[in-house]
């Protein structure tokens, strides 16, 4: 029963099982030891984990997991419940990130005089059905959410949405169109189609921008002998072997991981930059790989962010699959001996081309932007990858999300409570095997009363304030926000300061400095990365503004903490 009696805990830091992290937890729920290289998956380093409570490192994804977060206190019944899932509680990971681990544990046992248990964390990859399932079910979120099928019938909803309906029996609406639940003026045209929004994004992508500049070229200095010489950070071990006009990338025999990961040393920020990636692949080599379109690096460890990526499977034919947060948006199998593949991102617009012909284009009505500057990654799952070209070009973006929001800020109200207004966002998802489904998140437009006569503007200004809080790290066009509030920019600044105590720009800067202080305190990023993450890209300007607000330079603030 207790196989733990056969384990040598003195060497636990050397234990390594591919894809598995093992934690030794005592009866108080404190982590006493951890297996090898936890930062690859948990982001926390070994020293940061040991001594922390388990529930300070991991958060339960579902309510079913919560009773088992102190395994030593759980009466053992001969088995561990199925489908327990957790997520890392790291400062660099937002609560909306879906980096999942299957959670399991042993019965409690004695290590010397101390009662302990082993916790096993199995990383769930993007392609795992369980990950797709949990990324598609948003029932545990704290805002109203519904799931609609492709005919806009209600499939599922959470408790917060039922509160909007004043706890109407949702069974009477399940598998029926959502529109009767809306007020009459919101039913037509269909508000959830996002037709105007996607049309604006496609139009914006066609704008004439600045010239593209080469950001990365794998063969700029000839054929590289090593990943480091090519400008990659190596995360799971990869080796290069030269061929006549290119290279073959395979997994290092010295590493035990089941895949190879290559990440560019240089980063880009998709909120202010467009990018174009060009690969020429030698299909003589069979392989399966994923091109990840943006992963931040934290302390030289790859931070998982579930955004956009392209899966390529090369066999007798080549299968291209474009995925957004675990949901397949496009998949096609083609025959090509040496495909010249180009993928372009312009804000919320994506285009996949093969040998100069467009295979797929997609305008994301609610695009995902990383909060941090991101690095591109190439993950080789199996086989060897032959490459004769790999370049990345960038330019200042022609995309402006403020213009999109100004032209199309969807608002709905419900027949059960017509006086309450909600903004909403939609997202295509994979839902329990459904061919297609839509998750709709509703955000209440907050209002509150002040003892002033000019409160007719307050609802608009409260929405604007919330927008600044959600987008403080981006460049915000305050003139557009003023137009949304139906006032001149001068009067907008005056009223905003009257309502909230600071001008809009000062309010944004205050949020940036608060976030910068938290990141500096955590120590997870270099100082320049902190500035870029909060939207202050010029290091000198970041130093100046931070000192103006705190009285210290970022370096001295970090040292003092």
- Assign the CATH topology of the largest domain: Jelly Rolls
Query: How many runs of DSSP E, i.e. beta strands?
Result: 29
Could you tell me the mean pLDDT?
Answer: 80
Low-pLDDT sequence parts: 1-6, 94-98, 129-139, 448-453
CATH top level of the largest domain is Mainly Beta
Fraction of residues in β-strands: 25-35%
- Helical run tally: 14
Tell me the count of domains: 4
The class by helix and strand makeup works out as alpha+beta
CATH superfamily of the largest domain: Exo-inulinase, domain 1
- The dominant shape is globular
Radius of gyration over alpha carbons? 25 Å
Instruction: Report on the biggest sheet.
Output: 8 strands, antiparallel
Measured as a percent range, the helix fraction is 10-25%
CATH architecture of the largest domain: Sandwich
Alpha-carbon distance between the two ends = 46 Å
């Amino acid at each position: 029963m207790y196989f733990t009696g056969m384990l040598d805990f003195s060497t636990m830091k050397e234990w390594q099982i591919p894809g598995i992290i093992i934690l030794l937890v005592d009866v108080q729920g404190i982590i006493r030891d951890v297996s090898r290289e936890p930062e690859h998956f948990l982001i926390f380093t070994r020293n940061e984990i040991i001594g922390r409570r388990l529930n300070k490192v991991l958060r339960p994804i579902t309510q079913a997991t919560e009773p088992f977060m102190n395994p030593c206190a759980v009466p053992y019944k001969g088995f561990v419940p199925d489908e327990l899932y957790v997520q890392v509680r790291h400062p660099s990971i937002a609560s909306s990130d879906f980096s999942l681990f299957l959670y399991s544990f042993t019965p409690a046992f004695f290590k010397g005089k101390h009662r302990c248990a082993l916790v096993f964390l199995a990383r769930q990859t993007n392609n795992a059905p369980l990950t797709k399932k949990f990324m598609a079910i948003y029932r545990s979120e704290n805002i109203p959410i519904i799931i609609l099928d492709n005919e806009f019938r209600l499939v599922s909803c959470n408790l917060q949405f039922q509160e909007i309906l004043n706890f109407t029996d949702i069974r009477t609406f399940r598998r029926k169109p959502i529109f009767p639940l809306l007020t009459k003026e919101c039913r037509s045209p269909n508000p959830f189609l996002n037709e105007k929004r996607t049309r604006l994004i496609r139009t914006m992508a066609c704008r004439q921008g600045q010239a593209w500049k080469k950001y990365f070229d794998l063969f700029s200095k000839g054929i590289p002998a090593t990943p480091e010489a090519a400008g990659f950070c190596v995360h799971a071990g990869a080796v290069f072997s030269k061929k006549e006009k290119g290279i073959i990338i395979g997994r290092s025999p010295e590493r035990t991981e089941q895949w190879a990961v290559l990440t560019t040393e240089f980063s880009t920020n998709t909120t202010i930059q467009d990018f174009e990636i060009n690969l020429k692949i030698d299909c003589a080599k069979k392989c399966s790989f994923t091109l990840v379109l943006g992963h931040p690096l934290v302390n030289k460890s790859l931070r998982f962010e579930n955004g956009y990526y392209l899966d390529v499977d090369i066999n007798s034919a080549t299968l291209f699959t474009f995925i957004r947060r675990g949901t397949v948006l496009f998949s096609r199998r083609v025959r090509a001996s040496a495909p010249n593949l180009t993928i372009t991102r312009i804000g919320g617009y994506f285009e996949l081309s093969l040998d100069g012909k467009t295979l797929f284009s997609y305008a994301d009505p609610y695009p995902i932007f990383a909060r941090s500057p991101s690095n591109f990654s190439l993950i080789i799952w199996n086989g060897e990858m032959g490459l004769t070209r790999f370049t990345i070009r960038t330019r200042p973006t022609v995309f402006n999300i403020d213009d999109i929001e100004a032209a199309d800020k969807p608002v709905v109200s419900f027949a059960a409570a017509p006086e309450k207004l909600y903004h909403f966002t939609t997202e295509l998802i994979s839902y329990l095997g459904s061919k297609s489904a839509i998750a709709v998140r509703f955000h209440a437009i907050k209002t509150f009363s002040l003892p002033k006569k000019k409160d007719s503007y307050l609802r608009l200004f409260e929405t604007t304030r919330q927008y600044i809080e959600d987008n403080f790290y981006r460049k915000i066009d305050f003139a557009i926000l003023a137009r949304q509030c139906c006032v001149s920019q001068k009067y907008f600044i005056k009223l905003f300061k009257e309502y909230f105590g600071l001008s809009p720009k000062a309010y944004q800067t205050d949020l940036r400095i608060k976030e910068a202080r938290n990141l500096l305190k955590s120590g997870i990023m270099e100082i320049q990365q902190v500035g870029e993450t909060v939207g202050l890209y010029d290091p000198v300007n970041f130093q100046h503004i931070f000192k103006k607000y705190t009285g210290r330079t970022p370096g001295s603030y970090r040292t003092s903490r």
